[in-house]
Amino acid sequence: MHIEWLRVQNVRNLTDVIIEPSPGINIFTGPNASGKTAILEAIHFLSRARSFRTTRVSEIIQHQKDILLVTANIQHPRFGRVKTGIERKQGKTSILYKGESVKKLSQQASNIPLILITTNTHRLITGTPKYRRHWLDWALFHVEPAYLKIWYDYHRSLRHRNSLLKSGITVGEQLSGWEYLMVEAANKINTLRGDFIKQLQKIVSKYTQEVFSDQPHLTLLSGWPEDKSLNLCLELGRESDKQIGYTRHGVHRADIKFSDNSYRLSSTYSQGQIKLFVATVLVAQARLFEERTGNKPFFLIDDFAAELDTQARAEFISLLIKQKAQVFLTTTETSPETLTTGPSMMFHVERGTFTKVAK
Ligand SMILES: Nc1ncnc2c1ncn2[C@@H]1O[C@H](COP(=O)(O)OP(=O)(O)OP(=O)(O)O)[C@@H](O)[C@H]1O
Ligand SMILES: [Mg+2]
Predict the structure, then answer these.
(1) Neighbouring residues of 118: CB distance < 8 A, sequence distance ≥ 6
(2) Which domain holds residue 202?
């Protein structure tokens, strides 16, 4: 899937920008504050109805404007050319896809799958388990149609268990009923997550073979001790969970361990290594997505050069080129090595205006 034509109206300093990007690598270069990240935010908004920089949509609407619009023609592997658009007006978001109004935000996110790589991406390794779970859930949501429903079922049962414990109930059919449903959903989620991590590991190993001297490993930690069933953990934990006010075991406590020769990457890898590795994991995620759905997500890569030396950049770009995916990449530098292979386009950005630069 790729964007053929894009129009951005009233996103930060972009008043009315139209571009016809390459199906390959698109580079936005220009000085600070010119609007490079703003165009990535606009594309992200089209897919997810939110920015990746702020939780408040009102902040990305151009000052003194009351409407934000992002429209695009997309080339879809199954549907051919698809028109889509998103509008934000008076606090309300409306989405159109293939001439129909899209009611669920999750629907538009799967209509327009994307992979985001920013200067915060290292958080997949250095951040909290919550961040990793969030990433894992999104990744699975994109490839497993049943995942979202099971995820909701699980969290509903968890909420009921927590509120029963809070009201002092530690025995009885109601509690064990919710625990039963929790365990049922948890086992499904854990299996889907485990399969996903295993498949991802295979691709990651292939991609990292040349770049990293050892083989970084991804391990799923289920959220309860390996030698016990969740059922038992919940039953034995009722009293102590009541005391601390939440459920200590379950898939809501899962994590992913990234390690290399049994050392955690977060404590051994340099910042550049972490960024390159996480970016590689995300490319692997895109590949897995493509294998499962037949569709290629596109990449939004903000401030590409940050923390990567010339060799790391070249390695990552060559990995990206091999994916034959559409890429939107911002950098304050012009990186000539990125223009050597594959279809690519470069845009110079200056105060919210985009000019295509001849190759
Ligand atoms: N709501 C808004 N309305 C109008 N302009 C805004 C709004 N929010 C931010 N801006 C301006 O938009 C401009 C574009 O910012 P953006 O973050 O896209 O720059 P950039 O090219 O990515 O810069 P850098 O290289 O520093 O990352 C900035 O000058 C910023 O002050
Ligand atoms: Mg920027």
Answers:
(1) 52, 301, 302, 303
(2) 125-263
Percent of the residues in the chain that have a pLDDT greater than 90, as a whole number: 84
Look at 311 and 200; give whichever has higher pLDDT.
200
Average pLDDT across the chain, whole number? 93
Residue 277: closest CA among 332, 205, 325, 343: 205
Q: Which atom of ligand 1 is nearest to the CA of 63?
A: 3
Residue 28 CA: which ligand 1 atom is closest?
A: 21
Instruction: Compute the distance from residue 104 Cα to the ligand 1 centre, in Å.
Output: 29
The domain boundary, picked from 220, 246, 263, lies at 263
Taking the CA of 350 as reference, the closest ligand is 1
- 173 in the same domain as 52: no
Strands 263-264 vs 255-260: parallel, antiparallel or unpaired: antiparallel
The number of C-alpha atoms within 13 Å of 292 and in the hemisphere containing its C-beta is: 20
110-152 residue pLDDT tens: 899 999 999 999 999 999 999 999 999 999 998 998 999 999 9
Contact 347, 358 (CB under 8 A): no
Does a structural domain hold residue 255? yes
Percent of the chain predicted with pLDDT > 70: 97
How many whole angstroms separate alpha carbon 150 and alpha carbon 252? 13
Is the residue at 193 inside a domain? yes
The answer, yes or no, to whether any atom of ligand 1 lies below 6 A from the CB of 29, is: no
3-state secondary structure of 19: strand
CATH code, 245: 1.20.1050.90
The Å distance, Cα 121 to ligand 1 centre, comes to 20
pLDDT confidence of 106, banded at 50, 70, 90? confident
| Residue 341 belongs to some domain of the structure | yes
